[in-house]
């Protein structure tokens, strides 16, 4: 009569061979099995380099025999399907000296030979049936989990004796040890259904893993997405003594750019191993098996095994916190995220399927866990949808669509929009050179990988876009405008100094530009508008420490020798490792934002001053513009003429910016004679409106004059350096100097009106506080005319002329006179009256 065994993952039995050890050259093993599970130990005996192991692995039959001269391995697969089809299968393995034969369901499937001339199998250990206490630790075992299903007619015989192992177990033979609730009948075995993590925020919480000295985990996964955290757990903080940073043991398996990595630390330093040499994001099932004993072990992917050895020291892996599968909780304050686990730092949850999770040989019913935890974004079964999800309109506002695992993924970089489909406008923040937005993080963070992106718009060639800063070190990851280019500076620990990358040119064009930084360890990528440069960091350090994320102004200055210039412009869509800080600050999602910058697209006028008379001016130290130059300022006036900026130099060198009949003139001499560039504005600029002026000269002697949105370019030959000396004058010069100014300079008076946002080649002076001296009336702010022209300012069709002090009525073309062209008494006169705050004043001219 046949005896059936119903075996769950924690049930097995063993036979003690110590009194009847095996020593044979001829063996035969027969058994029958039925299961829905893909992996599990069927039978094992022996130790060290003398053993026999028969297992199911990924639905195929694996036989491993070692007679002391090396392992013989045989894989048997059915012609179609798998052996885990819930149908009975009969197995017969015979060995005659070195020849091995395997029959499954009466069909000869494999014949082979063991290595060299060893022919004897010896075992005085245990004969395991259906599993063991630590299957992963069995020599030659290709699996780490026990069998789940039904076994019957398990018999081993050799040329000396026959062991009917299943019958002996049912009869409770004294040499038999039964573990767990073994049932001697065959019942339906519940299949371990796969689960799908539908979104990157989905995850499951698993029980704590007691793996201090040994441990084994196996599972299958399937995805088309390149990166995501598969498994993670950590222990309690250790080493909290003074002058020693606390640390915790941890264990992680992650997918990065299509490759699988093992990352762990047992207290003596972390190890990070690439477990696969081929990409695994091809949508096919992959089997992962991790086994450890002390400091040593291996991780295998689809039977390709990679050994590892932890650093000398502790042999204990102390994980006393929950284990997470597929991702991490949204509130991660209680989770210690090691910087070595890049997917955790980057906020990359796994999207795809997982099945057959076994921990130390014990199965985990993932769908039941998902139901109990009401896990959002976790669904049962695993189906790969074949239809294309990305269409022309899938991502709004120009977002780029790519296919994910049963979902579309919208890349909203460069669009100014956020959300799953780029449907929500990103928060804009405006900065005027005195404004900042600073995120003071709740705790010090350490990262080895960063994804940073933002958009900016500025007319200044210099200015801080974003920087991480630390209260304890000079560590920083900083983005800034430097001469119209984007500059990335990364400084880590006590390395060999910062790594610097530059990309782009003429980015101070008042247009939106998209910046992206990708760092993975020592490798850097910096992109602006899809133009990318790469770098590799020197030195041993890869860890970035920071407490703050700062924009606009760098306020944490204790470890920096050269401060980046303050930013004037607009920022949008700042994302640091998946966190949208500008939007979170505006929406109140985080409470640790400090700012005086203004949300929204604001018109920016920074540090304005008013020159009240054309005899007023300010003097500064020499303008430093020898090899290149970037100047920016804003002006607002009603006066058509006036000298705005002047600096003389050695020999004939000089630079001038002036207003002539309402148009900007840029005059310069680098030693080749004076040259004049005129702004090509479509109308005079003395219209009491703010106008933006950009003047630049690069190392190739290309001069650019841009007023508002209109640009003039000139390529100069000859000398390329501007050798200035003496004081820089802003607003005018001394009255006696006008007559001696170089030719091509038209001004004979100073500038009257407002100046703001003055950028002197990367320096943002406070015009009043930083001036070496001031002449005349210059005051802070820009009030402008208190009385302005309206339709009814002048009567009888008199023409209203806007002046800085007020307005005047030109009555020339009327038959009236007086300050408002409403006085008949002066009808025969040509009168010009000026209205000001103090009343009227005028000059009367007789015809």
TrEMBL record:
Answer whether the UniProt record assigns the keyword Hydrolase to this protein: no
Q: Which InterPro entries match?
A: ConA-like_dom_sf, EGF, Laminin_G, Neurexin-related_CASP
Q: Which compartments is it annotated to reside in?
A: Membrane
Q: Output one GO MF annotation.
A: metal ion binding
What membrane topology does this protein have? Single-pass type I membrane protein
Ranges for domain Laminin G = 1-186, 193-382, 428-593, 607-782
Coarsely, its chief localization is membrane
Q: What is this protein called?
A: Neurexin 2
Give a short account of what the protein does: Neuronal cell surface protein that may be involved in cell recognition and cell adhesion.
Which part of the chain is the EGF-like domain? 386-423, 785-822
Q: Which Pfam families does the entry link to?
A: Laminin_G_2
Annotated keywords:
Disulfide bond, EGF-like domain, Membrane, Metal-binding, Repeat, Transmembrane, Transmembrane helix
Q: Which organism is it from?
A: Sphaeramia orbicularis (orbiculate cardinalfish)
According to the UniProt record, one GO cellular component term is:
membrane
